[in-house]
Amino acid sequence: MVSFIITYHNEPADMLHACIESILALSLGDSEREIIIIDDGSDVSPVSFLTDCIDEVVYVRQRNMGLSQARNRGIDMAHGYFIQFVDADDAIIAPPYEQCLDLVRYQQADLVMFCSSDTSETTFIPVSVSPVSGSHFMRESNIRAAACGYLFARRILGSLRFEPNIYHEDEAFTPQLLLRAERVFNTPYKAYYYRARHDSITRSSDQDTISKRLDDTLTVLTQLYRLTDKLSPADRPAMERRIAQLTMDYLYNTIMLTRSAKKLDATIDALRQQGLFPLPDRPYSKKYTWFRRLVGNAIGRRALLASLPLLPRH
Description:
By secondary structure, the protein is of the alpha/beta class. It is about 40% helix and about 15% strand.
């Protein structure tokens, strides 16, 4: 059984309905799926819009506690051997997702990663994917942390849960989950329809929201950095790479969201105090290498502040 945990908070009800329908369209029978909707204190319950599919879901309404707490409640309620998180305004793309389900059915997968798409229709070619451990995957790759981007075995969770009351909770959760997985399949399938909405946190220009995003990223970095001392010799380099990548992203976002030399210098000072700066001299990627060199000195930082906002964003 797969437990689909849908978190809902004031999204359009028709999008939630489309999300549910995308799950029902999969080849999973009634006894093979569980759809759990956690309504995180929406202004209006969407139940009246779901009359034609209400018997297919478990609907729970709670006071507004945030995305992490909503997902954690879904985890605690789940009965499935596998868990898939889905945001209420997104959807599953059936044909490529079926390939991911087959890896779960026939290849003893602990975790299956897939890609997102900006359209609900996609073409794909089935490919052969070999499993690696989560530790190996993190040592060799820059991971995508979004928790909706993978299907995973509930048994590997243990006591791991999402950190409440922070933005970027996926950045703390996903690397820890990967280190618990022995058979990870990283697929190229675009199996998740992601709707980029103008009112999302990541697109907000509100200064308080921007400050919290940046502050919470530093909180996540500090937590992961402290965790490295408790990891095995094999897992430590994997987490170190993830921390370096996330630190680079944090500095990049500081530049792009504030465009302030003063804020960038203050951010670097805070990272230095936590032992997170300078960035480690590792050949993780070409982008990482040039960014590390530039951000490591005052002239390079001025160049980044002047040039990065002018480049197209993808």
